[in-house]
Design goal:
With 165 residues, the protein is an alpha+beta fold. It has helices at residues 14-27, 39-46, 98-112, 127-135; strands at residues 5-8, 55-60, 63-72, 82-89, 117-123, 139-150, 153-163.
Length: 165
């Protein structure tokens, strides 16, 4: 498999990552947004003033394949040792091991930035993402039943956690 590179996300990437995310909003239950996001909304989601919460564009062969980031898990001070990890790939890049590489990469960033714990929240329907987190040593620590509604269906989410020892 061809190696991937990671570029720190900037304003210049916002349109492309918004497009990637909106594919999942409009076509899947991967995202619980039900309406497409604008670039301004996406900026608030992926760019943080806190340097510990970093976002990266994933590229392969000079083309954007997706993005990966760590966001704040909760806004209370005691949670500063934890982050939430998110990975979105262009649909034609899924299933090629890019998500596994991205997760390894962002875990390294998290360790460098002093995180103790990472969490990931995934729709129960999203078997591919659930499998990535399990393969990387995350444990399921929560299951919320029928917590969202999209496309006329009640949906569950599961949360995974990994301690970065």
């Amino acid at each position: 498999m061809e190696a991937v590179q990671y570029v720190k996300m900037t304003e210049a990437h916002l349109e492309e990552v918004t497009s990637i995310y909106n594919y999942y909003v409009l076509n899947t239950t991967v995202s619980f947004h039900t309406e497409a996001l604008g670039v301004e909304e996406m900026r608030d989601s992926v760019l943080s003033a806190d340097p510990r919460f970093e976002s990266y564009v994933i590229s392969r062969a000079g083309q954007t394949a997706g993005y990966v980031l760590i966001t704040q898990h909760k806004k209370k001070q005691a949670y500063q040792i934890s982050g939430e990890v998110t990975i979105y790939l262009k649909p034609d890049c899924a299933g090629q091991g890019i998500g596994d590489q991205a997760l390894d990469f962002i875990e390294g960033v998290a360790r460098t930035n002093g995180f103790h714990s990472l969490v990931a929240t995934v729709c129960l329907d999203n078997e591919r993402s659930r499998n990535i987190f399990v393969r990387h040593g995350y444990s399921q620590c929560a299951h919320y039943r029928e917590i969202g509604r999209k496309f006329g269906r009640l949906l569950d989410i599961v949360t995974y956690q990994k301690l970065l020892l």
